[in-house]
Amino acid sequence: MKCNYFGICGSCKIYPDYEEQLQRKKEQFIELFGKEPRVFASPSEHFRARAEFRIVDGSYAMHKIDGNGLVKIDSCPIVLEPIYTLMPKIVEFIKQSPLLIQRLYRIDFLSGLSGEMLITLVYHKKIDEEWEEEARKIAQVFGINIVGRSRGIKSVIGNEFITEELEIEGKKYLYHHYEGSFTQPNPYVNQKMIAWVMQMAGENRRDLLELYCGAGNFTIPLSYCFRKVLATEVSKTSIKAAKENCILNSVENIEFVRLSSEEVAQAVKGVREFRRLAHLDLASYDFQTVFVDPPRCGLDSATRELVREFEQILYISCNPQTLHRDLQELQKSHEVEQIALFDQFPYTSHMECGVKLVKR
């Protein structure tokens, strides 16, 4: 990938040839885990579905790699093609309107493989009905959704989400990705991660417990591998989107519950009852497999103890260090059967990892 801002813009931290940096990550992975992973590469450009840009004097800007101020940019080749194409057109259009450009602090882009687009305009001023009239022109000209934000105000023109379309093992899945909510940033690698997890799960007639389910990114496809799924998440917005995604995909064997991983451990072990679970018969679930995709901090001690009770553990991690820590405990009862490296974040040192563990 060629970029005029390599070494200046802080978005990309490493920038040799893509194959070379991927090989470096593989070597670092082997050094940490002592095992050679199956490696899933990313496209070398136009792979990122979410991007945030500061606006300075009517131009896009990013933090410099040395942390010393901002650098103005006119393009960003790591973003998806729809974002890359729209970026110059949007900023030029906005610059023609004093009302839209005045005190505009940031533009956020959200897109996907479906090609749908949502942009968020963040202001350091109050936005009002007059602003909305101007913003509607952008939505109409470019056929996109717009969210305007200023302190205490949120204005939605069109939808506050895009409908993403992923294809896994020849089947298409639809997802509502909401503005401001977490979504996987690299849809190409995301498809590979979901396919890998489904392969690791296999087909069986027993049930799945999923922790940190988000908006159902993995849950929806995994539901076809199990009799029933109980999926938990703490975010109200994510649970709302997950239930919508079930309807979009005509899936009926998933129960989504808003519980933390610690609360799930208490409920499954019968330590505490929760009204949010009153409509469920936990005893009717025949759990064999647990799937976790925790935040960067990894699993807490209670959750590690909980997952060790399952015959099969599927673990996706965005932090190799906390995964390595967790594996020290999990391998006391389980054996690593498969391990994978997903290059979700090219041109950075970040690695996404996948592990399948089975009970000894």
TrEMBL record:
The keyword S-adenosyl-L-methionine applies. Keywords: Methyltransferase, S-adenosyl-L-methionine, Transferase, tRNA processing. S-adenosyl-L-methionine binds at residues 184, 212, 233, 293. InterPro entries: MeTrfase_TrmA_AS, MeTrfase_TrmA_CS, SAM-dependent_MTases_sf, TrmA_MeTrfase, U5_MeTrfase_fam. The active site is at 318, 318 (nucleophile). Pfam families: tRNA_U5-meth_tr. GO terms for biological process: methylation; RNA modification; tRNA processing. One of its GO terms (cellular component) is cytosol. Coiled coil: none annotated. GO terms for molecular function: rRNA binding; tRNA (uracil(54)-C5)-methyltransferase activity, S-adenosyl methionine-dependent; tRNA binding. Belongs to the class I-like SAM-binding methyltransferase superfamily. RNA M5U methyltransferase family. This is tRNA (Uracil-5-)-methyltransferase. It comes from Nitratiruptor tergarcus DSM 16512.
